[in-house]
Design goal:
single chain; alpha/beta; UDP-N-acetylmuramoyl-L-alanine:D-glutamate ligase; Arc Repressor Mutant, subunit A; seven-stranded mixed β-sheet; 14 helices; 14% strand
Length: 318
């Protein structure tokens, strides 16, 4: 057992580009409460306020290299474990806990992101439940996720949080605060009480990072109205708005539940329908006016969108 006199907490979790959760938030929380954070990163996420775009899970050997370097040198007495995505890392972590015998291991299994993305499959959950959780001192789980991992609801090590996922990083902040208070010599009950008080202050502040996704979505629709008959490719609009096509896709899915290409095609189909209904232009004239290479090209597109050819649509309107 390590002495609880250095307030060092080793946080083992993923990186969050926004700084609202993950390794960055752990370091901020531990530091603000007077602890000394050291870290081992398990995954690098490509994310923003709209959500996670991509993961890069570090090889388990690299993660363990980080952990061993810290444990061999500064001997933190408390480990705080967060996001784990590699199955082989579970066994390695279990072996490290047995080897280094920290005073406390606080585990906050990250099952879902704040946007509802599933971050842990069933096989990984089973490995964590069987190999890692028996070695943990306290396990912090959101109540709405408890069914995925918790089999014994009477386990005194389980700390259930009642909040939903709306406040990005709240459960993460609670668990890193809990680890910090344990490193300062508080018992389980007092550490949980003080961590709850800290998390409650975060809720009152409610100062999560805000992005510009809604404004960008509105700008996309405005540009679509201006350029619909000139360009229908997503990359054109992404370049026009000076963002990546992937971010534009995230924004559209969050705001409208659809991909940007689907929105563009739907708007084009509505434009063609209007031209067919209220003008006497030929299909060829409409096709060229809407930027299609030929009448046949427009007809194929319109049939795909509406189930009718342009002439069949006009016949039905008569």
């Amino acid at each position: 057992m390590k002495k609880l006199d250095n307030n060092i907490v080793l946080t083992i979790t993923g990186s969050d580009s926004t700084g609202e959760s993950g390794e960055q938030a752990d370091v901020r929380t531990i530091t603000s409460l007077g602890g000394r954070p050291v870290s081992a990163i398990t995954s690098v996420t490509v994310q923003n306020t709209v959500g996670i775009q991509q993961f890069y899970d570090l090889p388990a050997s690299i993660v363990m290299g980080q952990i061993e370097a810290i444990m061999n040198d500064v001997e933190p007495s408390v480990l705080k474990i967060g996001m784990i995505r590699r199955p082989e890392l579970v066994e390695m972590l279990a072996q490290a806990i047995v080897r280094y015998q920290p005073n406390y291991v606080v585990f906050h299994p990250v099952l879902m992101s704040s946007r509802g993305e599933r971050l842990m499959d069933d096989d990984l959950a089973m490995r964590i439940r069987n190999q890692l959780m028996p070695l943990c001192s306290l396990i912090v789980v959101r109540r709405d996720e408890a069914g995925w991992l918790i089999q014994n609801g009477n386990d005194p090590r389980i700390v259930l949080l009642d909040e939903g996922p709306s406040l990005h990083g709240q459960a993460n902040a609670f668990s890193s605060a809990l680890a910090t208070f344990l490193s300062q010599g508080f018992g389980n009950a007092d550490a949980i009480r003080k961590a709850n008080e800290y998390a409650a202050r975060l809720i009152l502040k409610a100062d999560n990072l805000q992005g510009r996704s809604q404004q960008l979505y509105n700008d996309f629709l405005n540009q679509l109205e201006r350029h619909l008959c000139e360009r229908t490719d997503v990359q054109f609009y992404a370049d026009l708005l000076n963002v990546s096509s992937r971010y534009l896709s995230q924004v559209c899915r969050r705001a409208a539940g659809r991909a940007p290409k689907s929105i563009i095609d739907e708007r084009m189909a509505a434009y063609i329908t209007m031209q067919l209904d209220i003008t006497s232009k030929t299909v060829q004239e409409i096709a060229y006016g809407a930027g299609f290479s030929s009448q046949a090209h427009l007809s194929r597109f319109f049939r795909k969108m509406s189930g009718l050819s342009p002439s069949e649509h006009r016949a039905r309107k008569k």
